[in-house]
Design goal:
Elements lengths: L7 H9 L7 H23 L8 E5 L5 E3 H14 L5 E6 L6 E2 L9 E9 L10 E9 L20 E7 L3 E6 L4 E7 L4 E6 L10 E3 L10 H11 L11 E2 L5 H11 L2 E4 L3 H5 L6 E2 H14 L3 E3 L16 E2 L1 E4 L1 H15 L1
Parallel strand pairs: 3-5, 11-12, 11-13
Antiparallel strand pairs: 1-2, 3-4, 5-6, 6-7, 7-8, 8-9, 9-10, 13-17, 14-16, 15-17
Helix pairs in contact: 1-2, 2-3, 4-8
This protein binds 2,5-anhydro-1,6-di-O-phosphono-D-glucitol and manganese (II) ion (2 copies).
Length: about 350
């Protein structure tokens, strides 16, 4: 049954009416972004029938094997967004340097950093995937350089994701809370279904890839060990674990019912010379802002994610985010282990 309700466009018009900083160009940009998400949702939904499963046979700048859909998703977004005159440049997980808006198109005043397809390992098994995006301003008539993208998470003007799962959902913030919209495919519109999403302070559920237990550093070893001791341990209650293999899937669950998501620093990443696995500009920052806007916390263990001054488009960071009591506990364990 199709459902009537507030569309994404109606919500954004209403929520930007009093905002001098978010005018008609911003509304146009969000409209194009939603269109790209709908296109991708359709491809994901058709899967093998659309010929989008499988490996692309090449690696991205991170040295990770690209799936066909990683590349297709990148192209779908660029095609949907490059010509409308709202963007000055696009940075992506799948592109080494940023993509400048071609000369024949008008250059706008916004920058988009995005993860075209998050949870790539889920594509071929019909698991949940998503697109994560972060929008910042470019207040210059000049074409942007990579350096112009390196703004801290606090400077984002819009952040969100589209989850491709049993339903497709677009979840976003423009700094006045978090709203979730479900795609009604019968009318091709995102409809407000989850207003004012908020993360409970308290939770008994964590998300971490426990195959890396032996590599974890002391704070995470202690935290997960204490959770796993359940009612008999120092936490005096039982914990549950979930790991979607897609940050979008895990973060969405936490925005719906609480929890803590960890992709921490570990000895394996250290040995590879990596500062974490997840990327600051198009994974940790947008998800971090959503978490804070929903009343949760987003931290590395030593710094609030949104306070990090970026130094590279593809910078990696440790990520601990979700229900504030648990994130704060992990931050405390980090400071105790450092002293
Ligand atoms: P991506 O597919 O964009 O490279 O991101 C995958 C990320 C994230 O979505 C997920 O939480 C994590 O990688 C899974 O990593 P492991 O395979 O190490 O568990
Ligand atoms: Mn990702
Ligand atoms: Mn990706």
């Amino acid at each position: 049954m199709s459902q009537t309700g507030t569309t994404l466009s109606q919500y954004l018009v209403e929520h930007t009416r009093a905002r001098d900083d978010l005018g008609s160009d911003f509304l146009g940009l969000m409209n194009d972004t939603a269109t790209a998400c709908k296109r991708l949702s359709d491809l994901v939904r058709r899967g093998e029938l659309a010929g989008v499963l499988g490996a692309a046979g090449q690696e991205n700048v991170q040295g990770e094997e690209q799936k066909k859909l990683d590349i297709i998703a990148n192209e779908v977004f660029i095609e949907s967004l490059e010509s409308s005159g709202y963007l000055a440049g696009i940075a992506s997980e799948e592109m080494d340097a940023h993509y400048p808006i071609p000369e024949q198109f008008t250059r706008g005043q916004y920058l988009l950093a995005f993860d075209p397809l998050d949870g790539s390992s889920n594509i071929d098994v019909n698991g949940s995937t998503g697109t994560i995006f972060s929008i910042t301003r470019h207040d210059s008539a000049d074409a942007p350089s990579d350096a112009d993208f390196l703004q801290s998470g606090r400077q984002q003007i819009c952040a969100g994701y589209c989850l491709y799962s049993s339903a497709s959902m677009l979840v976003l913030t423009i700094g006045d809370g978090v709203a979730g919209f479900t795609l009604d495919s019968s009318i091709g519109e995102f409809i407000l279904s989850h207003p004012n999403m908020s993360v409970p302070e308290t939770t008994s559920e964590y998300a971490i890839n426990s195959a890396y237990t032996r590599h974890w550093l002391a704070p995470e070893q202690r935290y997960i060990d204490e959770c796993n001791q359940g009612v008999e341990g120092p936490r005096a209650r039982n914990f549950n674990m979930r790991w979607a293999g897609s940050m979008v899937g895990d973060v969405h669950r936490i925005l719906c019912r609480g929890g803590v998501f960890l992709y921490p620093m570990d000895a394996r990443l250290q040995a590879d010379g990596k500062a974490g696995k997840l990327r600051l500009m198009y994974e940790a920052n947008p998800m971090g802002w959503l978490m804070e806007q929903a009343g949760g916390m987003a931290h590395t263990g030593t710094h609030a994610i949104l306070d990090i001054e970026p130094n590279d488009l593809h910078q990696r960071v440790p990520v601990i985010m979700g229900s504030s009591e648990e994130v704060q506990r992990l931050v405390d364990y980090h400071s105790e282990s450092a002293s």
